[in-house]
What does this fold into?
Amino acid sequence: MADIRKKQMASETTEAQIAVHWREEEYYYPSAKFIGQANLTDPGIVERFSEKNYPECFREYADLLSWDKYWDTTLDTSDPPFWKWFVGGKINASYNCVDRHLAKHKNKAALIFVPELEAEAPVSVTYRELYVRVNEFAALLRDFCGLKSGDRVTIHMPMVPELPITMLACARLGVIHSVVFGGFSGEACGMRIADSGSHVLITMDGYYRNGKLLEHKAAADISLDIAKKEGQVVDKVLVWRRHAGKNASASPFVKARDFWVDELLPNYSGQIVPPVPMDSEAPLFLMYTSGSTGKPKGCQHRTGGYLAYVTGTSKYIQDIHPEDVYWCMADIGWITGHSYIVYGPLALAATSVIYEGVPTYPDAGRVWRIAERLDVNIFHTSPTAIRMLRKAGHDEPSKYNYHFKHMTTVGEPIEPEVWRWYYETVGKREAVIADTWWQTENGGFLCSTKPALDPMKPGSAGPGMPGIYAAIYDENHQEVAAGSGKAGNICIRNPWPGIMQTIWGDRDRFVAQYYAKYCKNRNSKDWHDWPYFAADGAVLAVDGYFRILGRVDDVINVAGHRLGTKEIESACLTVPEVAEAAVVPVVDEIKGRVPEVYIALQPGLVASPEIVDKVNKVIETMIGKIARPRRILIVPDMPKTRSGKLMRRVLAAVSNNMSTGDISTLANPDAVEKVREMAQGKESVALADGPEDLKKFGTED
Ligand code: WTA
It folds into this structure.
């Protein structure tokens, strides 16, 4: 085994190719030191969460919380697949993340904010201070904005402590928050405001990124215009200030609409807002994510089940104890940040670190300096960040005196070589690694090793989590056997407390997207008939470990961020010169995948750099910089089937130098050759093989 690995390394295989030519990897084992202190060391958990104890097993997670009223039904399956959890219970998420820790931990840091500029010292927010700030802001939301339980609020903010404060203030009132990733454009934010029906937008004047103070409030003005066009009027915009006494934004304030939070807050000084006991099933938040169609969908998460699930998994899989300093580098604007920066860690009274900026700013040692300075012992990030840090400073971690006991990787498949660098160099062979596979829709982890109980296997997420019965099905609805080496669709056979309730305002789409494919009987009220379809390809090894291959739908996972190809295509089609647009994923050494755009122009028009420029700009303004394509290729003709369907799979093959397969049945096979020349040059050679997700990529329309 070791020899094979040496050979792999010696042959200078790129990271992407290692993922393709993946083979069985050796196990790595947790240290005695880690096991000695771990929260979860009882192998009996597997039996306790086995199918015969389902669904009552999830009481164990719910019992980690403080309930205003205990529930009477653990799982209600009367309206499949709209499962209900801990029915009859009343609970408040803000109380569970803040108030209940005051007795024991009031002077402990709940949050440590690390500004991007190193000259600015980290700022700690104790649990007591968090309590005061959440209450004051909740009073402002209630009395100044008139918000009450069930209302929606859109939050478009960077990585600052005011973001979790805002979320927890909403949760205190039962107001449903919808946080939009700060890097999304005003347009993208506006569409989400409209869909959620928010009357209030909460934003910030600016924030630091790569050493520069970026203007952010201007996006609010754009988003309000867009929302209005969509029929949603926002009456108040609350603007947090990044620097006391300064204004990072040049955009003018609209009278009676825009307000500085720090000018209003003194009116609510010292006010205490009683946490509203919410129904277990009351929505806690919406999180928009990309799917197969152009429009992002609002994943609606419940209060009781979600909080129970993230708290249980934070305790057992993240191994969070109150004395830990925990740093998750994700953005709070994504689900990982919601579950594993804010709700999970704070429900367990941990110290959660929030870093404002870019991991490599001002140099490749920054992350490790932060870890050393704050004595972080649990670290959580994505393969893209790991690849980036490895490239920028392979040996940097050894220069700093920090010690992680636990590290997580999430968001994309991790190549075994990258995993080993994470383990050996970042973790200094001391830390266990949890490769956690899950999605925005899921609330929390679905597959991972149990850190003190299961050995780790580079590149594999591991078995289904306790109480999560995962299986792989093929296109004929047959279960794919473990060890068969065959890839298929990973599904979860049962409901769990963290699963979203529905797509906001679109029950039919919820059923169609996640349950229609493998539902055995639409009339059945038995959950066994309703497997959840995750839209990821996977293989299952004999040891029960799942290796995730990537999306099987039109989603591109760019640096761990989910982008819909259809969203990007719709943006391109708003450029008048563009007749057709096709977006495909291309393998990227650092980001995993990046989008590449093919354009066909309206008849009679000639390709020009100006058109390329327009397309680039429109993608940036309608979605955000994260969606920037690697290339935009204006081609004379798109490959199509005889019935006129656009063949994205062929374009994806061309973009990735893969074999296009049999194209003789296309309406215009010679178009492929022209496209290939444009994309690869005359001398190109197609590789026989490529990543699984690319082979099957794309719908035809
Ligand atoms: C991918 C992020 C491999 C997967 C929490 C999924 C992963 C999508 C892993 C969801 C992992 C997430 N290994 N792939 N450990 N974790 N993915 O909604 O394709 O932003 O469907 O949620 O990321 O992305 P999302």
The chain has 23 helices and 30 strands.
